[in-house]
């Protein structure tokens, strides 16, 4: 069973639907016991960094997320969920993220021909092997919706990159922590393959 963390963020139901397509049992919940008993957990979301962290803290979910990660449960952040995994964001200065991994969330720079927010399909490059992309070729296209992007402190955790006005760290992997800036649940068959790979990762 896959637990999907419910913290009133947008786009959670589409993740559930994608998992159902794959034949995976999924539960949207903020219940601590249910999440800790899950085989894997996803933190999806569309919204603002500061509001999301306030909601996670109000619901007592920050502590649950740290417990899950410490117990070796495969944990996937999607879009805003990726950003929350890190330390802080330009979107809401002074608000601390989950701090599971070192890195900052920066605003996509304003440049000629670069529209912000970034909405649309971009191809991925794989600087190193990642379990989410097992069996997938480089230059696959995935769907993005974001104005802010990850700059990981340790580039050794970056498993996918894309170019959009700058080099964007589009996916990371560190032990049992995985994250995608793009939306696999909205990325057609490619995205379903990525989610399939995630739900087949063994608990540590």
Number of helices: 6
Structural class based on helices, strands and sheet pairing: alpha/beta
CATH homologous superfamily identity: Class I glutamine amidotransferase (GATase) domain
Estimated helix fraction:
25-40%
Overall average pLDDT: 96
Features of the shown structure:
204 residues; alpha/beta; Rossmann fold; seven-stranded mixed β-sheet; three-stranded mixed β-sheet; 12 strands; globular
Question: Can you give me a brief rundown of this structure?
Answer:
This protein is α/β, with parallel strands linked by helices.
Record the SSE blueprint.
Blueprint: E1 2-5, H1 12-21, E2 26-29, H2 32-37, E3 40-43, H3 49-58, H4 61-70, E4 75-78, H5 80-84, E5 88-89, E6 103-107, E7 118-123, E8 141-146, E9 148-152, E10 158-163, E11 167-174, E12 177-180, H6 188-199
Parallel strand pairs: 1-2, 1-3, 3-4, 4-12, 5-6
Antiparallel strand pairs: 6-9, 7-8, 10-11, 11-12
């Amino acid at each position: 069973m896959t637990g999907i963390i419910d913290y009133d963020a947008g786009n959670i139901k589409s993740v559930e639907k994608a998992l159902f397509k794959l034949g995976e049992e999924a539960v949207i919940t903020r219940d601590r016991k249910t999440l800790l008993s899950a085989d894997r957990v996803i933190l999806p979301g569309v919204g603002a960094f500061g509001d999301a962290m306030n909601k996670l803290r109000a619901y007592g979910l920050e502590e649950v997320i740290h417990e899950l990660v410490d117990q070796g449960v495969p944990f996937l952040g999607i879009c805003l969920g990726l950003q929350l995994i890190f330390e802080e964001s330009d979107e809401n200065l002074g608000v601390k993220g989950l701090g599971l991994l070192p890195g900052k969330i920066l605003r996509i720079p304003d440049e000629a021909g670069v529209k912000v927010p970034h909405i649309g399909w971009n191809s991925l490059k794989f600087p190193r092997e990642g379990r989410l992309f097992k069996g997938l070729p480089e230059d696959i296209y995935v769907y993005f919706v974001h104005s802010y992007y990850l700059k990981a402190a340790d580039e050794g955790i970056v498993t996918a990159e894309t170019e959009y006005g700058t080099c964007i760290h589009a996916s990371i992997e560190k032990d049992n922590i995985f994250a995608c800036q793009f939306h696999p649940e909205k990325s057609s068959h490619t995205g379903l393959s990525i989610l399939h790979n995630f739900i087949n990762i063994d608990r540590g």
